[in-house]
Write the structure tokens for this entry.
Amino acid sequence: MGLIAVLAINTQVTPTVSDPWPTAQIEFAKHDNEIKGFLAGQANEGPEETYLAEQAALRAYPANEVAPEAGLNALATADKLKKNGKAVGQWTPIGPLGQAKYPALLDQFLFDGAEFTASGRVTALAIAPTCTQSQCRLYMGAAGGGVWVTDKALAGKNATWSFVGASLRSNAIGSILIDPKDASGNTAYVGTGEPNASGDSEAGVGIFKTTDGGQTWSLVTGSDIFFQRSIGQMAFDNAGNLLVPIASGVRGVSSVTSGASSSGATGHPLVTRGLYRQTGVTFTLIRPIVAVATARGSTTVKVDPTHAGVIYVNEFSRGVWRSNDNGTTWTNIKVALNAGLSTDRAEFDVVTLANGQTRMYVGVGNQSDSGANRARFYATDDASGAAVFTDLTTPQNIGYCTGQCWYDNVVRAVAGSPGVVYLGGSFSYGQLHGPSNGRAFLLSTDGGATWSDLTQDADPNHAEGMHPDQHALVTVPGSALSFIAGSDGGVMRNEGEYQDVSYKCDSRGMDAANTAYCKSLLSRVPGQLVDLNNGLNTLQFQSFSVSAQRPKNLLQGGTQDNGTFQYNGSAQNWPQIIYGDGGQSGFKVDNDSIRFNTFTGQANDANFRNGAPDKWVIISAPIFASPEGSFFYPPIIADPNAAAAGSIFQGSFSVWRTQDWGGDPAYLEANCAEFTESAAKPGCGDFVIIGDGVPSTQLSSAAWGTRAGGAVAWIARAPQNTGTMWAA
């Protein structure tokens, strides 16, 4: 634990707009629950410096680390309860079981005003090799929602998903591989643990296999060594053995921040990251990643489709590697864009050319979207030989994954159509409604020479659009231009028909150069995009808040990259009430028509009108404009005591407070509208730092002890103890 502080507050003063409580009446006292040391774990495996050390210790307290055995014990307990039948207090899902719907009002900011039904982050897709309009099996893996399957992937919006991952012992999915020897698609392998290098890319427990389409699963013998690791896109070698790329994952995710990299523990040492081959009942390391400070592991392995014994694998910060002798020796055939950055990720795919040679496409970028670090695209037509790459970066595709290439970077080639390549990444927000439609996915049909933007379809009025942050794409067998894509917002399908909507560029008010650029990207867009998220209840809820007046029928829930949704008593449909990332939220204890939300960082809004989507106002400008930092989703709570019902407390480096819900509602609605104003606009909110400054108002200060760093991770007030606040 970093520290726990006790804050004594005077609750007898009537709240007003200015903050009259003198700082002398507010004292922080250090609570004697401080950990004196920290076990960082193996090199480059445990927390990296004090920020991540703080995160790991928060979850581990009062121990030094969260032991993997704790997770196993929890699973064993759950199995025992399941075996013994229903228990008192059994949980019941309240949704959204049908639709988590973006209203048209909120969808206009990313798309074109069309309604959108969302699901949670997709990390893996796999489509059966035989696929017809009436019978098309599609497996979907989610970051936190397990494995789902449909046999109606091409049947309009009626995919009729079934959850098949209940017995996998992990809902964090890294990859899905269908055995090509089973044309039905019934035989598949699932690698658990997400390898996308985000703070909530949770580690897994091994590899599971099904032979009946997901009805039953068994742990692949020997794969339990990957416990607390993350498994990337797998492949079969020429002898039919599994090839498994292993990357770092995180262990433990909280509602205010995410996990630190997994570290070993007694009985469960972490295996070396790199590439493994299944050999009977064991997995053997054939491409280790050792003594590389910037490497996080591998996310993709491919077997050359033409040349026996040739294997390709990527590595964070180390580009793409090749073995021409079935994994005995390795050569670096494509270097990293910036080997000094652990976020540098090269994704690739291979396809056979008409002359029998192997073409490799590579997209590579890192945490920067500027200068020499901007994401680039390359290709070679002799991947198994000289592997001389041509730089095919153009204004159409440069920076396609912005500054998030470590997280969302997708390159997909299509067997039998070597000129077709899909390139997916983040989202070019600055180009939206201007030079492009966002470049969520780009398509080339001439080997990467020219590209079109697939983000919105051809609807002239309210185009359907792809959600930001792409992670997966499959094409329909036999149709290179029919695709199904997975992103932070769920699953989207294109029917394979395209249209030219370049005329839309003429009304965007751009100069000639940008208009020409726009027309090149919009010259071929999907005729219709169809979201397949109905009934796919995989939203990743970060937190929720409950109305004191209607605790059974009114709830707000913040979700990863899908905004904040509201539960009104229906388990089927939850409306989105505000967009963006969804962190902490809260209701005024004596009036649930008044509430607040969090996006990320220090951006908080208030709503005085029952959560009406068009009535959110900025209230955290003083915090946002301050030099203080915060966790990704900082803690923020409403005072639970009715006598101080207007108070909200927020944790950055210090604890901040407003006593009147951010300010005068009329002023805020007139001057601080969420949709039009900057989050740092002066006057938008009246939060102030509380505390007497002894030893420091910043709880992250070294003045509190040896565990300096991080940010405030938790604040709490008990309604029956009106004079005390707790912060950590």
Residues 1-6, 8-54 have pLDDT under 50 and may be disordered. Residues 343-538 form one domain. The chain is about 5% helix and 30% strand. The longest strand covers residues 479-487.
